[in-house]
Design brief:
CATH topology of the largest domain: Helix Hairpins
Shape: globular
CATH class of the largest domain: Mainly Alpha
CATH superfamily of the largest domain: MazG-like
Distance between the termini: 32 Å
Order of helices and strands: HHHHHHHHHHHHH
Number of strands: 0
Strand content: under 5%
Structural class: mainly alpha
Helix content: 55-70%
Number of helices: 13
CATH architecture of the largest domain: Orthogonal Bundle
């Protein structure tokens, strides 16, 4: 676990630690606090929340628990910061956000909790009969739809998926939700067949005009995201690993040419290709870990809890 000494505490100590963070944030925003923190707005903090989230994801991909402690703290700080800004505007405070997610977890897990939030007895859990993650996900969507209907909201299965989400991940989420009502390919092999079909259409479009080629390329990417879903793979993580592998190999290619007194800027395409093939043949680089690509079995509800 590295050099950090990890302490595993109960909910009471966790609550006290969280309360301390909230107090520190209030001091930072007070007239006697930090000028930079006092200057921030909800909008100015937006990029920091996104950046800290990506840094936490990177720590997860690298399997670095010590670093993840720091990065999760940074993400939590951004949440508390947003709560403090909202509290000063008399809109809500971080306690409202914590209570909202707690109540949602209770409502959306009737197979785990009573209406008051107490754990169900073993007999009641067995009677609920939800033993597979897919069944839990289907129940989650039904409960959500019922809540929307009770609130007078228009019921749409795909509503609420953020447009600001990375497009590949959004495609994965769209396919996941559609699959909960049976709108899906039967097998991963059927998705591969669809990819072949879309690739043929893309090839034809490339010969026609860029606008149609762009549309067909989008169809290919959307279908690839759905293949990842059928395989139980997170497409963003898979692409990050592919990016890392290419970067490692290209760095090795550049180093090899440099050792020969040459530069990638001056090398002819055939020379670059030959160097690339040599690097591939001798490369021992492997993806960091399949755990950074494999999607958790209950990923649907878990991801939604983090966003809404």
């Amino acid at each position: 676990m590295g050099s950090r000494v990890h302490r595993f505490t109960g909910s009471r100590k966790a609550g006290a630690a969280f309360a301390r963070l909230v107090r520190l944030m209030a001091i930072l925003r007070s007239p006697s606090g930090c000028p930079w923190d006092r200057q921030q707005t909800r909008e100015s903090l937006r990029p920091f929340l996104l950046e800290e989230t990506y840094e936490a994801l990177d720590a997860i991909d690298r399997g670095d628990a010590d670093e993840l402690v720091e990065e999760l703290g940074d993400v939590l700080f951004q949440c508390v910061f947003q709560g403090q800004v909202a509290s000063e505007a008399r809109e809500f405070d971080i306690t409202d956000a914590v209570e909202a997610i707690s109540q949602k977890l209770i409502r959306r897990h009737p197979h785990v909790f009573t209406a008051s939030g107490a754990p169900l007895a073993r007999r009641s859990r067995r009677r609920a009969g939800l033993r597979k993650p897919e069944a839990v996900l289907e129940q989650w969507e039904k409960l959500k739809a019922n809540e929307q209907a009770a609130a007078g909201e228009e019921r749409r299965l795909l509503s609420g998926i953020p447009r600001a989400m990375p497009a590949l991940q959004r495609a994965h989420e769209i396919g996941t939700r559609a699959a909960t009502v049976g709108f899906d390919w039967p097998t991963a092999g059927d998705v591969v067949d669809k990819i072949d079909e879309e690739a043929r259409e893309l090839r034809a479009a490339v010969a026609e005009n860029p606008q149609r080629a762009a549309e067909e390329l989008g169809d290919v990417l959307f279908t690839l995201a759905n293949l990842a879903r059928k395989l139980g793979v997170e497409p963003e993580a898979a692409l990050r690993q592919a990016n890392d592998k290419f970067t490692q190999r290209f760095d090795a290619l550049e180093a090899a040419l440099h050792a020969e007194g040459r530069s990638v800027h001056d090398a002819a395409p055939p020379d670059l290709e030959a160097a690339w093939q040599r690097v591939k043949a001798t490369s021992t680089a492997t993806p960091r870990s399949s755990t950074s690509v494999r999607a958790p079995s209950a990923r649907g509800p878990a991801r939604r809890r983090s966003r809404r």
